[in-house]
Specification:
Elements: H1 10-24, E1 28-39, E2 45-50, E3 55-60, H2 62-65, E4 77-87, E5 92-102, H3 105-121, E6 139-144, H4 149-161, E7 166-171, H5 179-193, E8 198-203, H6 217-225, E9 230-234, H7 242-246, E10 249-250, H8 254-261, H9 263-300, H10 304-346, H11 351-390, H12 392-397, E11 402-404, E12 422-426, E13 431-435
Parallel strand pairs: 3-5, 6-7, 6-8, 8-9, 9-10
Antiparallel strand pairs: 1-2, 1-4, 2-3, 4-5, 11-12, 12-13
Helix pairs in contact: 4-8, 5-6, 10-11
């Protein structure tokens, strides 16, 4: 307490008065009518709150004014949660408003809180109770007003994300005294008809009075009782209703509800695109590997002309070996003849007697040598003929063809062909493509 004899300045007096007011009066709700409304360039909002007997000046600072969901106008009946204070510079008594609501909304908020607590205690909000949404719904039911913008937003989103889906409208009131009853009846009708895989309950934004039908216990119980998975898309992102709590999934807006309902289809399209890219990459990799394998095989493949050249070289080598063998054979026989001649020289009297025998041996030797040469040359000719017979070019020259399928594999069985198939023909001179008219398997 101040000493009564103490002299204080106006600034100090106003400061003490403000502190006393803010200390004695906690935040409280004050009801009245808005008048003298003014919006400053700073963003602050000034007005008077009055009733039939008094008024008080009020200020809503910019940071608080931005959170008010509707436009303030003179004559509106409101309830302001405010701090009792004093504007020291002018000594004006004023209320620093924290938040505003339309008059009478306090009762609605209290009813909302009581119902929310009771239904939560009954287990209606439990996550384990809620149903899983089908990933690929085909028929989507929409409970909404036929004339509302929410329905148009949902239909536009469905057409954009999954145009093949069927949308079934269950028209209902979404505002007013009979709206809750209408909504519950449409949920029951959708359950009974069994013509959709998923239900969307949607409505555009509005005040708590506008959305109150979705805070009714009748609607909450109908949503819980429905065997169909339900997405709630009521109001704007900041609006939350009892229907949002009991629904299997809550969407921030009607458009978001449609997007959640079609999320599986939308993700599948991206997955298919990714799979297509992966498959194309795998095919390109496999083709590259097979081409590499083909290059390695081509390096190991010996051309028939090269094989023939090797055979000719082998024949020449064998002929050379044959000549050397014959020469050695002749030298051995000549040595034997020389030794026999020496023996004959030592036995002159017997030369004439054995001359005929020697001549016969010489004839036999010559015949044996000639026979051996003929046999070796015949073997060489047979080998040359066999090699020539194996030459594929010679086979092609006789009118035959090498047949390969589109993969380059040899075709040896008519059963592997079918009518309309295209094959490649290798001829003696050049290649050609042919189409199969019919095929007869061999027996």
């Amino acid at each position: 307490m101040l000493d009564p004899s103490t002299v204080v300045s106006i600034s100090e007096l106003n400061r003490l008065a403000r502190q006393s007011l803010e200390r004695e009066f906690p935040l409280l709700w004050v009801a009245g009518e808005i008048s003298n409304l003014a919006r400053a360039a700073s963003g602050h909002v000034y007005f008077s709150l009055k009733d039939e007997n008094a008024q008080a000046r009020c200020v809503v600072f910019r940071s608080r004014a931005q959170s008010i969901a509707w436009r303030l106008e003179n004559g509106q009946q409101v309830e302001a949660r405010a701090l009792v204070s004093l504007y020291e510079a002018r000594g004006d008594f004023q209320l620093n408003v924290e938040t505003l609501r339309r008059a009478g909304l306090g009762r609605l908020f209290e009813a909302f809180a009581r119902l929310k607590a009771r239904l939560e205690a009954d287990g209606l909000f439990a996550a384990e109770r809620k149903r899983s949404l089908p990933r690929f719904p085909v028929r989507i039911g929409i409970i909404s007003s036929p004339a509302g913008a929410a329905l148009r937003d949902v239909l536009v989103a469905l057409k954009r994300r999954a145009p093949h889906l069927t949308a079934i409208l269950y028209p209902t009131l979404v505002q007013g005294d009979r709206a809750a009853e209408n909504i519950a009846k449409m949920i029951a009708a959708a359950d009974q008809r069994k013509e959709c895989d998923l239900l969307l309950i949607v409505r555009g934004g509005g005040s708590i009075e506008d959305l109150w039908a979705f805070n009714e216990e009748l609607v909450a119980r109908a949503i819980v009782a429905s065997p169909l998975p339900i997405i709630s898309g009521v109001g704007h992102e900041t609006d939350t209703t009892i229907a949002d709590y009991v629904a299997d999934l809550r969407a921030a807006t009607p458009t978001a509800a449609a997007e959640l309902a079609t999320q599986g289809w939308h993700e599948a399209a991206d997955e298919i695109a990714d799979l297509g890219t992966a498959m194309n990459q795998a095919m390109q990799y496999r083709i590259a590997r097979q081409r590499q394998d083909l290059d390695h095989l081509a390096l190991r493949l010996i051309h028939p002309a090269t094989r023939l050249a090797h055979a000719r070289d082998r024949l020449a080598l064998l002929d050379s070996h044959l000549d050397a063998s014959l020469a050695r054979c002749l030298r051995r026989h000549q040595d034997r003849l020389s030794r026999a001649a020496l023996g004959l020289g030592r036995n002159v009297p017997r030369i004439e007697k054995r001359r005929g025998h020697i001549g016969l041996l010489a004839q036999r030797l010559g015949a044996a040598i000639r026979e051996q040469q003929q046999h070796r040359r015949s073997a060489l000719d047979n080998m040359a003929a066999a090699l020539a017979h194996l030459n594929p070019q010679a086979t092609l020259a006789r009118g035959f063809a090498i047949v390969r399928d589109a993969n380059g594999d040899l075709v040896t069985d008519a059963a592997s062909l079918h009518a309309g198939q295209t094959v490649n023909l290798r001829l003696a001179h050049g290649e050609a493509q042919a189409g199969i008219l019919a095929s007869t398997p061999g027996h």
